[in-house]
Amino acid sequence: MKNIRRGPIVLASSVLATMALAACGSSDSGGGSGDSIVIGTTDKVVAIDPAGSYDNGSLTVQTQVYQYLMQFPEGTTDLTPDAAEKCDFSGPKEYTCTLKDGLKFANGHALTASDVAFSFNRIVKINDPNGPASLLGNMDSVAAKDDKTVVFTLKAANDQTFPQILVTSAGPIVDEETYPADKVMSDEEAVKANGFSGPYTIAKYDKNQLAQFKANPDYDGALGKAKVKTITQKVYSDANNLKLDIQNGDIDVAYRSLTPTDVDSLKKAKGVKVHTGPGGELRYIVFNLKTMPGDDDDQKLAIRQAMASSLDRQEISDQVYKGTYTPAYSAVPQGQPGATEPFKDMYGEKPDKAKAEKYLSDAGVKTPVSLNIEYNTDHYGGASTEEYNAVKRQLEATGLFKVKLDSTEYDTYSEERVKDTYPIFQLGWYPDFPDPDNYLTPFFAPNNFLQSHYEDDAMTALLKKESTDSDKDSRLATIGEAQKMVAEQVPILPLLTGAQVGIGRDDIQGIEKTLDPSFKFRFTSLSKG
Q1: pTM for this model (two decimals)
Q2: Was domain 279-500 assigned CATH 3.10.105.10?
Q3: Beta strands at 527-528 and 508-509: parallel, antiparallel or unpaired
Q4: Which residues form the signal peptide (predicted)?
């Protein structure tokens, strides 16, 4: 579900600058005192309300301020109780969680099983196009048995992934006394309602400019107590300014997303440390199957296959990303269990004009094919422009395509892409949990988050089979079949996969602990001094 970006700082007014200084304090060695840390990011928040967001920027905020039934503590992918005392299958289609005693939201309201059931039910009911409802496709119902017991009834038995869904964008527990059941709450309303129960609450907030987080003394969950009382997050619209501020000590931590050139430069800079963690990020092109070029489905498929035969991922990796991203030849990146490389097998590693031309001619597609490709300027990293200029050059070098590139800032981008505005567009993905299913079901199941009009009964059957198969070898074989089908149909075109990167001043500890395979950035891991 998640992403990257780049970024003049969005904080332009003197009022906000004063607010930032007041929030952060001062220090000779960084943006905050020992009791405060300043984090810089280019990741924007779509919505604090879990029902209205399914992106990395929003999830980072949600991880800090909401409790989940289960969580991944730092350094592990083992599910650990958070608000729950325990969770387990009580039947093949029944998953039961018992809550801890004395849970409450920061506004004083009790946190009960009724709030839990409300939280999951409203995500499905609201079904916001930018929300995580697709993750709950196997949830038939959820209900509070009593104040401490919540029971999930599943559509398919033996769901191997459902426990991990509880830790995703679909998992935050909200206060049913303050959150509306039928619409997404605005960020300003969410902050005012203070229905937070995670390790931090939000004390000050200016959307996609500055947020000040305060340690929640009542939190006693899987992420551990906050080591730092105040964390201020500043959102940048230009990664160059993010790089300068971490290098100059004006902020303490830079997390998502600096350009590969900036990361390489910071490795040699004094006073900072560059930390890397396990990868899993996927960069890819999405096709809107309704509005993309082509007179019929056969022509549209031929165009997608011809594009797949015309790209040189290694060249993009080397020239644009300096090797910080590597070629991706599957919907499931290398390193994940069961990952294969069917795009390499079917379309090759290097552009093959003859193969691409045959796909088009066999389907009666006239060339050059006009392609309108939309990409994002502030969410998927500072090198996105270079990346898509390289894609354009490679496609046009075959003589088979004429490419028009357009770019849009993410606030607009996230809204327009689900309105059939873009026929072909860029997306990026960080997994919700460390399992290959998370690169398949959210993309290709019915009601998938891509909103690309892709739905295939055979694919749906494969996804259901792998997600309920308790035999490891059999399950991985099915995951291989699904990857092959994606390569045959090309609803997406995988490009690159990359590692997690976080940069901190020398006096910051804990960044390396949170860059783990669970893909959770935890403020509770950070300390200073």
Answers
A1: 0.75
A2: yes
A3: antiparallel
A4: 1-22
